[in-house]
């Protein structure tokens, strides 16, 4: 029976290979250094906070900022001696994170691992709407509270989740402020062209912006999506020009947005305002030089923004956490450069979780959920309040700020031009 | 049954069955997620191998079947309220019909022309769905969380999807074996070696090729429906990722072109290797480049893949490694 | 219509550059029956070459193009020796995968060195207004360079001894060997020329649009479409195919939503493959 022996040996080896793969655990991402807990004055408990980071793949850059924001929050919390519950218990966080390679397949695999093996009590989302949607399914299945940041899509909150909470202003309100701004700056502007990249995020932003613009009495003279990876906008711009819009709003991601802006400039397209997604908010947009000047873009947060305990008082809500200056200087001290909105979003996610646990007085998921449902506060990131109705968990408090690239002393710089209350410079209007 | 007495049949089937059952035995949810991914790759690679390995037609658009099955299945579940199983089967049937029509047309092309056409088909379908608003267009579709209630709650739904994934993986491996050892399969191999000669010998090449093409389309379509059900949302970029087709080809080359066991071993090895490269501090930044060098070395020095190499090196194992 | 004309002119100008990019792919296919899947990566290499020479050394992009010309031939010949020659004569799959592996290496190293941050060559040649058509300097020059390169290639292939040898090897390698043509060197040179064309077109594209390390994929797909339109293996056809593609891109947005452009392009691509696989001009 030589054959049988062969069979068994080979079978054994191969089974080892295959199951071995299943066991091949991804190595943990670097953790923030954890100092040994100082001698506890009261009862302390350690809670595991789980998230994935896109250390590789297309979101690596943004994700790194977001994770640094989370880590800075943890460090600040550690410095303050942990989170104190009303009954005197001190809650300390231990973070667990893995590399999700910017892919959905990984995200589901790793969030399951975080919950079932690492026993994470609370979760923070990965960066990007797509990955977050994949993670939310898992966290909701296990009844965990997840704070999402770096994810602006609305659709996640139409799925009936009960314990997923959004920090970012959702896509549906990304460009509505630009419409308001146009209305305020120029009562004669009537025509808007909405042009967008055919991706999930940009399409949902564009649809909402179109509906809003029409409600505000504008005529949407062109509403068209272009294929992602479009490089030559020449013929499309000719078409836009023929529709004679006063303003162009839309865009998509960095690559197409900057290409579009460059070609609008080269073609000297005669419009009064251009507001596009993502690209203008990224510092590298300045590489476009003169082509960047006058371009407006929405931003989740700017270090120049003016949220403060005073503005909280004016709005009639409570203030929590560090001021903008404290956050910015803390971030600079830790990482050596100014934080962008990805980093601020990461910090804000931590802060919101911290406040919710304090309000709940326990780490019980349902109690924390109740606290989040009731939350209505101002932090350095802005106003935070969640929808508790049909779109449970959707961010309804926070607003975008709109920046514009302007030329000052021969250099292109970014200034906040909208909303009125937050602006740091007069807008350049009309553009051409 | 002749199959049941063939050790090589049992090797392939038992490896998939045992590895697949492992998370069921331990009840480990994260083991399930790991295995689920590997099984999905096994399905993609095994089915692709029927066209690529047996018939010798290089299909870069294999993922179009995964995407279509996923889209149809997801549409039926999320918008029409169908149960997962009929929805997945409906997706597979429509995809198979699509493959039959498509195959009858494009399998007339040979060599590089066929390979290019498959890229064109994948891109055309993706671009079409991006513009198709009933299927959600560029935004894609999402599924209400309540849908999982029908499967005994969300947690259970994942186990259901996983169990079905094992079944599909087994079916695809058994089909791959059945084709390989049948007279039909011999016809395919003849086409691979020399299509004109095969025609002269009386093999109805166009028909055989189309059947092979349809068989290879069914399993990724089923896997697509399961994958996106589990995912809870679908969008064109994830469903028609050309890169995944290429990954499938790499798995087949790694394991052994034209063998039954090759794609299984290749899928598992590839998945593990990728995980290792991505997390190892030395290769992390250069993982893509390193994988490229490795692929090049395999093509030049071990063109028959792991299983092929074993078969050539140790003729005795041929009885157990098909 | 006042949109149609400017859009057609825009499409035509960019079409020459697309055509040039595809010429490299089609040349390699015509001579050695290899579909070069590293084509997109080589285009990106050309982009980054010109970009780095411009930002680091301040070399004008058009000077950078000359350097890409030489670098392209040398790199292409080296790649031939490593990834193509050992596999010639085997199944198509081998060279498809080996060239894909080369692309993985280039993109992998490129990502590690440059990340996927977008780059832009901030360089302008102004513009001329003719009626309602606005001609951008960089685009006109790019089209012009593409035409010169195409004519140069034609003269080389039909008027020089080496060029004739390449055509002989493409027609029948064994016969060419018999009459004393060193086929290995000729094949290496052809791969070098194909690589050169890819890198030069990449350099030209870099003067027009922002790009990043992953931008090659789009141009590779466009090149496939163009090659099929013009006939696989036919460099003159590639130029024609490029113009057709450019015109489609100019033409489609005028009449329907711009998002349909790729649907039309790829459907046309599959149809041409089926109905007239030798391309609109016929093979070679």
What is the fold's blueprint, element by element?
The complex is a heterotrimer of chains A (432), B (322) and C (284).
Chain A lengths: L1 H22 L20 E10 L6 H20 L3 E2 L5 E10 L4 H13 L5 E3 L4 H13 L3 E4 L15 E3 L9 H10 L5 E7 L2 H16 L3 E8 L7 H9 L4 E5 L2 H13 L6 E4 L18 E5 L9 H7 L2 E2 L4 H12 L5 H20 L4 H10 L1 E4 L2 E4 L15 E8 L2 E8 L14
Parallel strand pairs in A: 1-3, 1-4, 4-5, 5-6, 7-8, 7-9, 9-10, 10-11, 12-13
Antiparallel strand pairs in A: 2-3, 11-15, 13-14, 15-16
Helix pairs in contact in A: 2-11, 3-4, 11-12
Chain B lengths: L6 H20 L2 H26 L8 H16 L5 H23 L4 H20 L10 E2 L10 H29 L1 H11 L1 H6 L4 H27 L1 E2 L1 H4 L2 H14 L5 H19 L7 H15 L3 H9 L9
Antiparallel strand pairs in B: 1-2
Helix pairs in contact in B: 1-2, 1-6, 2-6, 2-9, 2-11, 2-12, 3-4, 3-9, 4-9, 6-7, 6-9, 7-9, 11-12, 11-14, 12-14
Chain C lengths: L3 H29 L6 H19 L3 H24 L7 H23 L12 E4 L2 E4 H23 L1 H11 L1 H6 L4 H26 L7 H15 L4 H21 L5 H15 L9
Antiparallel strand pairs in C: 1-2
Overview of the structural elements:
The complex is a heterotrimer of chains A (432), B (322) and C (284). Chain A is α/β, with parallel strands linked by helices and 432 residues long. Chain A has two domains: 228 residues, Response regulator (Rossmann fold); 150 residues, Response regulator (Rossmann fold). In chain A, 38% of the residues lie in helices and 20% in strands. Chain A is built from twelve helices and 16 strands. About 5% of the residues of chain A have low confidence. Chain B has one domain. In chain B, 74% of the residues lie in helices and 1% in strands. Chain B contains 14 helices and two strands. In chain B, helix 7 crosses helix 9. Chain C is mainly alpha-helical. Chain C has one domain. Chain C has eleven helices and two strands. Chain C has a two-stranded antiparallel sheet with strand order 1-2. The radius of gyration of chain C is 19 Å and the shape is globular. At the A-B interface, helix 1, helix 3, helix 4 and helix 6 of A face helix 1, helix 2, helix 6 and helix 12 of B.
